[in-house]
Amino acid sequence: MTQPLIQLQDVTKSYPGVDVPAVKSLNLDVEPGEILVLVGPSGCGKSTTLRLINRMIEPTSGRIIYEGADVTKGDPNALRRRIGYVIQQVGLFPHRTIAENIATVPKLLGWPKAKIRDRVDELLELVSMDPALYRDRYPNELSGGQAQRVGVARALGGDPDVLLMDEPFGAIDPITRDRLQNEFLRLQGELKKTIVFVTHDIDEAVKMGDRIAILRDQSEIAQLDRPENILTEPADEFVENFLGSGAILKTLTLRRVRDIDLDPMVTLKQPVHRGEALTAMNDANTTTAVLLDERDHPLRWIDERALNSTRSSLETSGRPITVQLQPEDTLQDALSSMLQSSAGMSVVVDGRGRYLGCCTIESLAGLLLPHAPGVPSS
Amino acid sequence: MTTVRVQTAPQRKRRSIASWTSDQLDLIVTPVLALVLLILLVTVWTYSTFDPTTERILEPAQLARQMWEQTILAFFSTVLVVLIAVPVGILVTRGGAPRVKNSMVSVLGLGQAIPAYGLIVLFFVWLGQGGLTVIFALATFALLPVLRNTIVGLEQVDKSVIEAGRGMGMTGFQSLTKIELPLAVPIIIAGIRTATVINVGMASLAFLIGGGGLGETINAGLKLNRPTAIFIGAVLVALLALIFDFLGGLAQRYLRPKGL
């Protein structure tokens, strides 16, 4: 295992006049290149924990190790210039243009002007904003979503290795939030920054996090693990309650169709006669089959009624297959396609559209609830 | 959370439109008023018949000197106010001593609680007669609006903007000079404008301790029962005040940082 990029060692923060510390001897390692999400109920100290890392709040005791060096003492401003910081309210400087806002840290670091100008344009493009259009505008001309894009660009200004994000998408409407989250994940795929991300929204945590730390009062870590492990095996009752009843549903977004044992189903490959089809289905003792064309592309669901109606040929009876899944799709996609599908299951095809198998509610349940009794397999 | 964001965006826009129109009005109403006064002044001056006493009181060269004195008194007392009140306002908003700040505002507010007349006499007792004494007295009197606006101006700066600045590694001083002061400028200037207008008006009392100014004309008119002289003296004071106010309005308009 590589050396953690950030380490909090026995960090405590207590405020004078308050008996219980806000953060109590916290130990936390942040691995390079990961998104670590701190999530917990309000008042649990997750924001305080985040602000301890860049010393916006000074710890009462304990040590903060950044890139192997103790940064608990020393100039906090120099430390902060090496760490990107994004807050919920964005906090763009209203009297500075977008370009000047993004140039804040490079300017503090004393970069030459030409380099700053290039950096600003590069960052605006990175967050999908046209530099020519936005460079010289002022923040009051931006929508909430655009403002937070600029906020992220500004945090990346000095090319820091670490980004601290305090509910960055919390004040943005759900649709824009979803888009920004996806864009941010794409961005992170390119940038590979180390990110500590605070949210109170477990769904956001599951979506964004490589690892999730669920915190309870005084920033005590209730569980720290990969999201799928937390969702399937909550450490205790607190975590279980925090995840809420929808935990199983949340795992749907994390797992892929390829994880499922596909149901082979009876397939009828064109050209096929009605009689052959009937025999095949009777032999397999099933009521539904998939009709494939010559190149193994699934065409229609064939059931008994379709077989019995003699009015039309096989390729026009039965119901057409409208939704297909690919192994990379999430189980959430699988579930919704099954619900839409007339047969109550959906076909899975490979990248070239060739039939691989079928995905049924039973196989989905078998994956999600491995210990559930009596899951029938056909 | 979402609703808050949705509400603030149009509000901010509306506010900027409102302040824009009030700015426009500001810069129109004052000159119009000044023009009306000027016409009144010229009319009275042209169509009244002055007796010799009035003529001596309203001798043009003397009036010009008094107006100049009044301007100088108002100008330098305002400069003094700014030099004192803005740094004090900055100091008391640093650190974390709200009690110091509040008591400071009360103590300096006392200046305004004492009548200007009394203040000038008090300073006369302490510093003797002359324009300099008047400037100190006026500065004391007009301290409060600038101090209060400096404090309010610095405190109304969005905390998240400061947090973002500090979080990116700005020092406290950089945060003050690059974020907080520029964002407080419109409110501070509004305070300075108020102080200037107060000072122009109050400089009419300078004659009490030999500081000159248009108070001499008004006083002579009163003592010698010459209403025309009183009127012309008063209108000239008002004109000066309006001119200063207009300049303040211009400053407020053009020194406001872009993007606000």
Written overview of the protein:
The complex is a heterodimer of chains A (378) and B (260). Chain A contains 16 helices and 17 strands. By secondary structure, chain A is an alpha/beta fold. In chain A, helix 5 packs across helix 7. Chain A is elongated, with a radius of gyration of 27 Å. Chain B contains 10 helices and no strands. In chain B, helix 3 packs across helix 10, helix 4 runs antiparallel to helix 6 and helix 8 (172-202) packs antiparallel against helix 10. The chains are: A alpha/beta (378), B mainly alpha (260). Chains A and B meet through helix 2, helix 4 and helix 7 of A and helix 1, helix 7 and helix 8 of B.
Q: Major sheet of chain A, described briefly? A: 6 strands, mixed
Amino-to-carboxy terminus distance of chain B: 23 Å
CATH topology of the largest domain in chain A: Rossmann fold
Low-confidence spans of chain A:
372-378
CATH 4th-level superfamily of chain B: MetI-like
Q: Averaged pLDDT of chain B, please?
A: 85
| Overall domain count of chain B | 1
Based on the coordinates given, report the CATH architecture of chain B. Orthogonal Bundle
What is the share of helical residues of chain B?
over 70%
CATH domain fold name of chain B: MetI-like fold
Integer-rounded radius of gyration of chain A:
27 Å
Overall pLDDT confidence of chain A: 86
Estimate what percentage of residues of chain A fall within beta strands. Answer: 15-25%
